[in-house]
Each structure stands twice: as C-alpha cells, then as structure tokens.
Amino acid sequence: MKKLFFIVLFFAFFSAKIFAEDLTGAGATFPYPVYSKMFKEYYKISGVKVNYQAIGSGGGIRQLLSKTVDFGASDAYVDDEDLKKFDSEIIHIPIVSGAVVLAYNIPGSPKLKLTPEIIAGIFLGKIKKWNNPALKKENPKANLPSMKIVVVHRSDGSGTTFIFTDYLCKVSKEWKNKVGRGKAVNWPVGMGAKGNPGVAGMIKQIPGTIGYIELNYAVENDINFAEVKNKSGNFVKPSVKSVELASDCDLPDDMRINLTNTSSKYGYPISGFTWILVYKDLYNGKLNRSKADALANLLWWMTHEGQKFALELNYAPLSENALKKTEKLLKAVNFNGESLLK
C-alpha cells in the first residue's frame, strides 16, 4: 500500500505540472533577481512555469500593449497619456521597492558621498574629473585621483532610467530643462549599456566609471556605491531599511507614484516601486480562463508569501499600507467580468 501511495503521489505531482499553464512576461531588469527567485520558488509549489524576459521596462510595456505576453513589468508607471494607447484598462501591481544606486569604479575603492548637485554635475558633463573640488569638499578623507569620470547609462528603454532621471529633475532645474525625465533620454555625456547587468558589467570592468544600477546588482557584483544626501540634508546609504523609509508616504489607490527625493529624514532619495502590469480584464489581454487563474494566483502569492524573498535580495517588501491597496487592485482583476480572487 505504501508503494502504491507513492506511485499515485508521483503521477499526481507530474500530471499537475503537465497541465499547469505556463505564463509569459517581459520587462524590467531592475527586479529581475527577485522575480527570478520568486518564479523559481512558485514553480516548486504550483507547477506553473513563468518565462520572463528581462528586456527593460519599455520593452515590457510595448509587449503588453501588443498582447504578446501575459504580463508586463516596469519600474516606471504608465502615465495618463500612454494609458490611452491601450484598448482596455490596465492595472499596476507593485511587487517590491528598491534603490537605484550610484555605483562607481575608482582605483583604491574610496568611500564616496554625493550631493544632488554633484550627481547632476557629473551626468550633465560639468564635473569631469574625480578630484574635482566639489567632490573633494564632500569627501576630504578619500584619495580621489586626477582621473577622467566616465559616465555609464542605459541604452535601452528603462524604468531604472526613469527613476534616476525623475530624481534628477526634482533636484536640478538645469537637468529638468535640458534633459528631462523618461525611460530613455538624450544623455549629455557617457556611454550606454543594455540592462542593469550591462551597466554593472561595464562599471566593474572600466576604472573611472560611474553609473546607476539597482542595489542588488551592485552587491552581487561587489561594486562600490555611494551614500547620497537627501532632502533633509542627511547622507544616506542605500539599503532595504532606507528604501522602506522612502516608501513610507501617502499612496494613491492606483499605486502609481514616484518615491524619489523623499521627505523622509533617513529615507534613500533614489528609490522606486517596481510593478507588474496586467489587463484588468485578462480576457482582453488574450488570456484563456486557465491562464487568467494562474496569473491571478501568482500575483497574490508574490505580494504575500513571496515577499519573504525580497529582503535576502536587497529589495524592500510591501508595507502594510501598500499591501492593503495592492489587495484591492488584485481583487479587481477579472476574466470577462468574473472576479478571479474572492
């Protein structure tokens, strides 16, 4: 009987995996480390395989618009004008929040503190060398070389770029007037690389470089990153805690909000949510009922049980307030008018 029990269990397990619906998604590289972990763990308990392509937020939004994926992913919310391009309402489901860090490669690996003025000056091409007086003033103990600063930025449409340029627009009128914010901008200086992995790789390989990447990419690649002076005048190290503090604010019901330049005394100022984007009525996204159920259940798990994987990968889990609003959004997701999550 015991042998028979295990045989039945074996076939039940594998038949569940055979008949489980695979899901496809594409978009942001910013949350890829935590998404990859979540999807792997969810497969173990559900048999649902998620094929996710980290192609950048812009690509994820485009593929959702063309309905070639079951869900998109972005670190930049879709603005009101671009929402009109969709033939049916879409919902932004926040999964975690994270930090965009200023990662750098300076010989000797000195610790670095950066002010908003210095960051804007570097990315505008006005501060050209590491031993610039403004840098030396804020970092008097650091051995800063007379070396050219090489800026590295994203070459693809990127939510990480949106977060970073949104921050720069808030702290620098010159940046706002000359460059602006967006998933892709005309960079005054620097060289481009694709995705967070591409930017991280270039910084790690080339001395004198500085660029913006998600915190976990800096940690995993052993790349130095700077403390940044926030609106309250405090130099803050990017961390899960300082990102949590940045997200402790009034949140809109649709959860479309920028967390940059936070008023939180010890919040990290270049923080942001990352969202999974879905059609409110999944039937309008060309999903069948089985896939719709699978996607709804996956998103509920990611925003609940799956949150435990955020901390270990340097992302901040959803706050209690954020989760309450997210649950309302999830319960609005339906299939041809029928609610999927009671």
Can you tell me about this structure?
The chain has 14 helices and 14 strands. The two termini are 39 Å apart. Strands 1, 2, 3, 4, 6, 7, 8, 9 and 12 form a nine-stranded mixed β-sheet that branches. Strands 5-10-11 form a three-stranded mixed β-sheet. It has 342 residues and is of the alpha/beta class. It has helices at residues 2-19, 32-46, 57-66, 80-83, 116-123, 133-138, 159-171, 173-178, 195-205, 215-220, 240-246, 289-302, 308-312, 320-332; strands at 23-27, 50-54, 71-74, 90-104, 113-114, 150-154, 191-193, 209-214, 224-225, 227-229, 235-236, 271-279, 334-335, 338-339.
Tell me the radius of gyration: 21 Å
Summarize the main sheet.
Answer: 9 strands, mixed
Which shape, going by the Cα principal axes? elongated
- Poorly predicted sequence stretches spanning 5 or more consecutive residues: 4-19
Structural class assignment: alpha/beta
Structure, briefly:
The protein is α/β, with parallel strands linked by helices and 342 residues long. It has helices spanning 2-19, 32-46, 57-66, 80-83, 116-123, 133-138, 159-171, 173-178, 195-205, 215-220, 240-246, 289-302, 308-312, 320-332, and strands at residues 23-27, 50-54, 71-74, 90-104, 113-114, 150-154, 191-193, 209-214, 224-225, 227-229, 235-236, 271-279, 334-335, 338-339. Strands 1, 2, 3, 4, 6, 7, 8, 9 and 12 form a nine-stranded mixed beta sheet that branches. The chain has a three-stranded mixed beta sheet with strand order 5-10-11. A two-stranded antiparallel sheet has the order 13-14.
